[in-house]
Specification:
The complex is a heterodimer of chains A (295) and B (262). Helix content of chain A is 34%, strand content 30%. Chain A has 10 helices and 14 strands. Chain A has a 6-stranded mixed beta sheet with strand order 6-7-8-3-9-10, sandwiched between helices. A 4-stranded antiparallel beta sheet of chain A has the order 2-1-4-5. In chain A, strands 12-13-11-14 form a 4-stranded antiparallel beta sheet, with no helix packed on it. The longest helix of chain A is centred in the C-terminal third of the chain and has 17 residues. The two termini of chain A are 41 Å apart. Chain B has one domain. In chain B, helix 1 runs antiparallel to helix 4 and helix 4 packs parallel to helix 8. The radius of gyration of chain B is 20 Å and the shape is elongated. The two termini of chain B are 25 Å apart. Classes of the chains: A alpha/beta (295), B mainly alpha (262). At the A-B interface, helix 2 and helix 3 of A face helix 1 and helix 6 of B.
């Protein structure tokens, strides 16, 4: 069963593009990463799924409920963290968390207390006095305290210190292990590589790719690093060539044999060949698209 | 009723401040009535000689030597226009405020329908207006007791009721407009209240502008007319009820379909 499914989903703001013909399927129990540059349409897709904005065309369902007709059923089973967490400034942290639980007609006190402790929140502080990071933590508690089936988190770690970032991902993995689905929208490509099973790339409103993170990173491209380089022939056909002192690194997409042939005339001490991390893959993916569009 | 209670708490201090200010002004105006009685005949003659200009303020045959006439002019205007501005501000911001303060995304991603949210918010606006009118009514009647006046209770109650209905109608119209706004709309709210007030004045001044009485809810909040006829003008109230219902329905429809800004 799919936790999220969209077919030809489009959203336009007047004539301005939001998302165009997005076909997305996120399986139940997945840990899905959604990547794209600013303005690519990540938040538009999420806001359409949650009924905050209405679609222009296509169809969308969350947990098998239609996004237009069954908003309440969807929102009952979803925990959502917006990218910019804004709340009622005059409330205290505990008042806001209780207010969120009341809107869900749930008593989440035990779960909320545990989350407050793990995220090191001060429950008696006014929301208006909180830093961006602490407001984000409040948003995370509100999104998680009712133990939903699906977590939709838009930039969950922005503004958080590394220790809390780790705690947030621990929490998400615990919930994912219990069977919940996590849909994570982020700019931070390493988060996708470290935590997600599947990932989708959106750019200029279109979903370019959606696949297992392993498949995305195993593209045949290799990240090659040469150390102790004394002599190097012209590196034809490689990407992302970088040189720092006597260390040279580049991405090779032409296969190992042409690489060895190319390096036969080079003089160096050591060489490592590894799969590039997701960041490298996505950046070269964007570059390829840019080059195609330029042609 | 979580949203309703939340909104009651959120607007509590604003309502208390507005109620205190209007009630204070009402109290002062009522308490000085006995002191003004000595010179009130001269003032009354001056007002009557102003002709159309006096009628602009709704001064009818009663003049201001009678307590109800005085109350309609001095106090009623304060409660009328003060309460109208308060009602407009409450109504105009009740829906748009969430977008303006970027809290709409938080609220609307909970399992509660937009119809229910708008309904509970509207109810909270009406509750705040009811509270303001009750405080002002209690202060009015208490001050009347202090100065030893004995105006007809029925007429005083009808006058107070007319102001309450005026405030409810202005709040309903502002609520409808609020659904179409993204910003807070404070200026629009004050503008609506003042526009209706000046329309009422203009309609009283000249026959050419008489048609405006059908457009402004201040038409039925005319203490002098109520005292003279011992009833409310239900023609204007019926129009007001229809306009209020239309504005509320339009507000609900728009809010349900609206794309909420991040």
């Amino acid at each position: 069963m799919d936790a999220i499914r969209t077919e030809k989903l489009s959203k336009y703001y007047g004539s301005a593009r939001g998302i165009i013909d997005v076909d997305l399927a996120v399986e139940k129990g997945d840990f899905y990463g959604f990547i794209g540059p600013n303005g690519a349409g990540k938040s538009t897709l999420i806001r359409t799924l949650l009924g905050i904005i209405s679609k222009t065309s296509g169809s969308a369902s969350v947990l098998n409920f239609d996004c237009s007709a069954n908003k309440n059923e969807i929102l009952t089973n979803v925990g959502y963290l917006p990218a910019e967490a804004s709340f009622y400034n005059r409330m205290t942290v505990s008042e806001l968390i209780r207010f969120s639980a009341k809107l869900r007609k749930r008593d989440c006190k035990r779960e909320a207390d545990e989350l407050i402790e793990r995220l090191r929140l001060e429950p008696d502080k006014k929301i208006g006095q909180l830093s961006l990071g602490n407001r984000k933590k409040v948003g995370i508690v509100c999104a998680m305290q009712h133990k939903p089936e699906l977590y939709i988190l838009d930039e969950p770690t922005s503004g958080l210190d590394p220790l809390i970032q780790r705690e947030v991902f621990e929490l998400l993995h615990e919930r994912n292990d219990e069977g919940a689905t996590v849909f994570l929208s982020t700019h931070v490509l390493s988060e996708i590589g470290h935590h997600c099973k599947h990932a989708g790339i959106i750019r200029e409103g279109r979903l370019l790719l959606s696949d297992a993170v392993e498949k995305i990173t195993h593209t045949g491209a290799k990240l090659v690093t040469l150390r102790g380089v004394r002599e190097l022939p012209p590196m034809v056909g490689v990407k992302k060539l970088r040189q720092e002192n006597d260390t040279v690194s580049f991405v090779c997409t032409e296969g190992i044999k042409p690489l060895l042939k190319l390096l036969s005339s080079a003089d160096f001490d050591d060489m490592t060949v590894e799969d590039p991390d997701i960041e490298e893959v996505l950046m070269s993916y964007y570059d390829t698209i840019d080059q195609k569009e330029a042609k | 009723m979580t949203v309703y209670l939340h909104e009651l708490k959120r607007g509590r201090s604003t309502t208390l401040i507005w109620s205190a200010v209007i009630a204070f002004l009402l109290a002062v105006s009522i308490l000085i009535f006995p002191m003004m009685l000595d010179s009130i005949d001269e003032l009354n003659q001056a007002l009557q000689s102003m002709g159309d200009f006096a009628s602009a303020f709704g001064i009818g045959k009663l003049g201001i030597s009678d307590f109800i006439g005085y109350y309609s002019l001095e106090c009623g205007e304060m409660l009328g226009i003060g309460g109208a501005i308060f009602a407009a501000l409450c109504g105009i911001s009740i829906l748009s405020r969430e977008e303006n303060e970027h809290t709409a995304e938080f609220l609307l991603t909970h399992p509660i329908s937009r119809t229910r949210i708008a309904g509970e918010k509207l109810l909270s606006v009406f509750t705040h207006i009811t509270a303001l009118n009750m405080i002002c009514s209690v202060v009015t009647f208490f001050c009347i007791l202090i100065i030893g006046q004995h105006p007809s209770f029925r007429i005083m109650a009808l006058i107070m009721l007319s102001y309450y209905l005026l405030h409810i109608e202005i709040a309903a119209i502002s609520f409808g407009i609020s659904a179409f706004l993204k910003g807070r709309g404070t200026g629009i709210g004050i503008g609506i209240a003042l526009l209706f007030y000046f329309m009422s004045m203009l309609s009283n001044i000249t026959d050419n502008m008489r048609f405006m009485q059908w457009l402004t809810p201040f038409s039925y909040a005319n203490g002098s007319w109520i005292a003279e006829h011992q009833t409310l003008d239900f023609r204007f109230i019926a129009i007001g009820a229809a306009v209020s219902a239309a504005a509320i329905i339009a507000g609900f429809i728009k809010y349900n379909k609206k794309d909420i800004a991040a």
